[in-house]
Amino acid sequence: MAVPVLLVTGFLGAGKTTVINHLLTAPHGKRLAAVVNDFGAINIDAELLAGSAEGMVALQNGCICCTLQGDLLRTLSLLLRRDAALDGIVIETSGISDPAEIVRSLLDPVVWREAALDTVLCVADAQALTERPQTLEDTLLLSQLRAGDVIALNKTDAVPAEQLAGIRDRLAALLPGRTVLEAQWGGVPASLLFSEDLNVFPDRAMPTASRFATPGFESVSWTADRPISLPQFQFTISRLGPFLVRAKGIIHFEGQERPVLFQMVGQRATFGAAPSPLFDAPAVRLVLIAEIGRLQPELVHALLDECRI
Fold first, then answer.
1. Collapsing DSSP states into helix, strand and coil, what is residue 307?
2. Residue 41 pLDDT more than 70?
């Protein structure tokens, strides 16, 4: 199984390091490594995060979207070959990085087999966007926001509710269908960033629906005892996609010898190699996560039931 990668991007001062520090020190039980990029010759961010991760690698005096791209790929290779297996790798870009090139590199099939890009998180400074609304017209910031599967609107405690609602409306207009989380002091739930937090490998059928552990979100689970139709599943996910924050499942499609791992975050969906099947597990195990109230479990189940052969 490939190690999932979380790419954290965002403008200067948005709070990326605070978000990563919160993630690395949260009680999720995962072994996470961090790769930190600072454009200056002294990597302050790496010092702030030192001791929080299983492995810390600082890339400095350059930008990983261009001059340090080769260093990033070599660093990932070294981390993956450590004796202690990792549960995830967090990559922080510098505040002046355009993440598009980094995403392209991480989606390379050779890299993907060992370090699969799981989520792109863009951290945005709610206070700065309130004080300087024209910032949303900045080309680099727009590129960072558009790359994000999830937008973390940080420092919301410093912004009045009415102004915060205005920022959310502008982001919704710029990025329709994108998940926007509100955060204070970098508190973004790990369960929405690493798909391995989703319980899709049970030794028996999952409950039909359950409230997800992260406040403000809920999940719908679905299983099938036999392989399902790939075209019908693609059609169903295209209908449900705009309402989802993320999804993950082990799915056996009709006509295929082995099941595959399905992952969806934001509007990016991928199929990959699935882990060895568990004894007597259903042919299909799927979990969908959305903001509370966005999904109707009965309708979701009815749509997914149409995928059965």
1. coil
2. no
Same domain, 269 and 178: no
What is the DSSP secondary structure assignment for residue 191, as one 8-state letter?
Answer: G
Q: What are the distances in angstroms from CA 129 to CA 16, 134, 141?
A: 16, 8, 11
Q: What is the average pLDDT score of the chain?
A: 78
Beta strands in 81-216 (DSSP E): 88-92, 115-125, 150-154, 179-182, 209-210
Quick check: 130 and 108 in contact, CB under 8 A? no
Measured between alpha carbons, how far is 21 from 221 in angstroms, rounded to an integer?
31
**Per residue in 65-94, pLDDT tens?**
444 456 777 778 888 887 678 888 888 887
As a whole number of Å, the CA-based R_g of the chain is 20
Which amino acid is present at 79?
A: L
Measure the CA–CA gap between 60 and 68, rounded to whole angstroms: 8
Residue 283 burial (10 A CB sphere; 0-12, 13-18, 19+): middle
- Reading the block at residue 23, the tokens are 């993630």
**253: β partners:** 228
CA nearest 34: which of 97, 79, 85?
Answer: 79
> How many separate helices (H) and strands (E) can be counted in the chain?
10, 13
Range of the domain at 163: 3-192
Q: What is the pTM of this model?
A: 0.70
Q: Is 184 exposed, middle or buried (0-12, 13-18, 19+ CB in 10 A)?
A: middle
**What does the pLDDT look like over 226-259, one tens digit per residue?**
999 999 999 999 999 888 887 888 899 999 988 9
Phi/psi for 36 (5° steps) reads -115, 130
In a shared domain, residues 102 and 173 = yes
Closest listed residue to residue 147, CA positions, set 38, 65, 248: 65
Give Cβ neighbours of residue 299 (< 8 Å, ≥ 6 apart). Answer: none
Alpha-carbon separation of residue 249 from 2, 176, 274, 275 (angstroms): 15, 25, 9, 11
CATH number for the domain spanning 62: value is: 3.40.50.300
